[in-house]
């Protein structure tokens, strides 16, 4: 059975972890591409839809894009994406918990998949998330975080989480990257920097994750085409 989500305790532990290898990819933030760091102009959640739309995925996508942007921990410069990178949260975190961690720690990623398999988006897919601790990786890869089911030393990830992360990866390969997922473009975080992320459990099941992403890619390539992410689809209302 997964361990109980302990909320604030896991957030605190995730903030304090120093071996994650995430971040903007340089110790000198002046070396990053120019960023406008524009946040949401309206803090009142009841004031209407958020300004920045999520991807046109065929499942609900909770929208944290403007709230993450307001932290300054993302670079609003677009790049051609050629790979997807999977991470683990280093905690049993909700979507809101993930934002709380990144509000304090200079890090971000494009997506998170929680314990139930639900998806949230924090960074526009073509932008530079502060995710892998490597400039080239942050420029070229779309990062997907996954909630842990258990903590150290195994850092397991629940089946609903990793399967939905693989499905999302397949969609991204089909609709954004334009290539079939393979060992040369579906990575774990440790491909880019010195870290154990996405953890020993995910290392053991990499072949299953890749196969699931390939099945998803094939499904979306055969399905009726969806609008490209830069088509500014209608945002999905964030679930609480």
Automatic annotation (TrEMBL):
It comes from the Bacteria. Residues 70-201 form the N-acetylmuramoyl-L-alanine amidase domain. Pfam families: Amidase_2. Residues 1-20 have a biased composition (Basic and acidic residues). Residues 1-32, 221-240 are annotated as: Disordered. This is N-acetylmuramoyl-L-alanine amidase domain-containing protein. It comes from Streptomyces achromogenes.
């Amino acid at each position: 059975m997964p361990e109980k989500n302990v909320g604030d305790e896991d957030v605190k532990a995730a903030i304090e972890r120093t071996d994650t290898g995430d971040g903007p990819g340089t110790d000198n933030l002046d070396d990053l591409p120019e960023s406008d760091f524009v946040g949401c102009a309206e803090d009142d959640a009841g004031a209407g839809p958020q300004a920045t739309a999520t991807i046109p995925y065929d499942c609900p996508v909770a929208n944290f894009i403007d709230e993450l942007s307001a932290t300054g921990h993302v670079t609003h410069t677009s790049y051609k994406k050629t790979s997807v990178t999977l991470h683990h949260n280093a905690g049993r975190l909700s979507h809101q918990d993930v934002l709380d961690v990144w509000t304090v720690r200079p890090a971000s990623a494009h997506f998170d998949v929680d314990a139930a398999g639900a998806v949230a988006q924090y960074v526009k897919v073509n932008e530079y998330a502060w995710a892998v601790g490597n400039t080239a990786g942050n420029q070229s890869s779309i990062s997907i975080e996954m909630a842990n089911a258990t903590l150290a030393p195994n850092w397991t990830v629940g089946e609903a989480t990793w399967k939905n992360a693989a499905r999302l990866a397949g969609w991204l390969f089909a609709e954004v990257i334009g290539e079939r997922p393979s060992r040369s473009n579906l990575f774990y975080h440790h491909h880019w920097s010195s870290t154990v992320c996405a953890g020993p459990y995910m290392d053991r099941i990499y072949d299953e994750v890749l196969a699931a992403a390939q099945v998803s890619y094939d499904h979306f390539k055969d399905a009726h085409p969806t609008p490209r992410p830069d088509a500014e689809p209608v945002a999905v209302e964030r679930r609480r």
